[in-house]
UniProtKB/TrEMBL annotation:
The keyword ATP-binding applies. It comes from the Archaea. Signal peptide: none annotated. This is ABC transporter ATP-binding protein. The lineage of its organism: Archaea, Methanobacteriati, Methanobacteriota, Stenosarchaea group, Halobacteria. Residues 14-239 form the ABC transporter domain.
Length: 239
């Protein structure tokens, strides 16, 4: 068991307490074995570890894409385990934004249409969708690419669209899974600069990465090994 830091501070929008997750694939595999972690409001946390260490499982639990077998995950003071599937979906749609390594854009939609997708499934936001997309794409430097399809954009531009889409519902928590993994170093640094700006604007960010140089953009690095929290490394000079 690894418990890491106490997960009880009131300023944490996300708190995991002694979470365990086991998968059954012919035999049981403990993806997470008693991990506790808190994400203070406005913090920037990187998660590192070898393949199979539980990085993506932790992100899925914190993002309400999965629920723990034991332990609790709280978001904004609400226990995710006490919510119905519909309530968890609404929580994901209003308070959490996701950015993935493979962008996950709809190929037949324009950049603006991709950004507005999260808004389609929420009542009361039909008016002003295009304006919202234009504002967000301008924020990430793509104000002149509103009507471009993903295949007309570079990898870095597609990731910027994905970030704008993740911000469509003004989430408090941004989860990123290897967001620079498919990008060259220069383009990756441009994307990381966007994350720096988002944290400066008050977002809480958790990023899964296998690259040390990427992780060092965060305030701290959470190291997972074999489903356990091995170390929380506070980066020098970071708040």
């Amino acid at each position: 068991m690894s418990t890491g830091e106490p997960a009880s501070e009131g300023g944490s929008p996300v708190v995991a307490r002694d979470v365990r997750r086991t998968y059954y694939m012919g035999e049981s595999v403990d993806a997470l074995d008693g991990v506790s972690l808190s994400l203070p409001a406005g913090s920037y946390t990187a998660v590192m570890g070898p393949s199979g260490s539980g990085k993506s499982t932790l992100m899925n639990l914190l993002g309400c894409l999965d629920t723990p077998d034991e332990g609790t995950v709280e978001i904004g003071g609400r226990s995710v385990g006490d919510l119905s599937g519909g309530e968890r979906a609404r929580l994901r749609g209003t308070e959490i934004g996701f950015v993935f390594q493979t962008f996950n854009l709809m190929p037949r939609l324009t950049a603006a249409e991709n950004v507005t997708l999260p808004l389609v499934f929420h009542d009361g936001v039909e008016a002003g969708r295009h304006e919202r997309a234009e504002t967000l794409l301008s924020r990430v430097g793509l104000g002149d690419r509103l009507d471009h399809a993903p295949n007309e954009l570079s990898g870095g531009q597609r990731q910027r669209v994905a970030i704008a889409r993740a911000l469509a519902n003004e989430p408090t928590l941004l989860l990123a899974d290897e967001p620079t993994g498919n990008l060259d170093t220069e383009t990756g640094n441009e994307i990381l600069a966007v994350f720096d700006e988002l944290q400066a604007a008050g977002r809480t960010i958790l990023m899964v990465t296998h690259e040390r140089r990427v992780a060092e953009r965060a305030d701290r690095i959470v190291h997972l090994i074999d489903g356990e929290l091995a170390e929380i490394e506070q980066l020098e000079g970071k708040r």
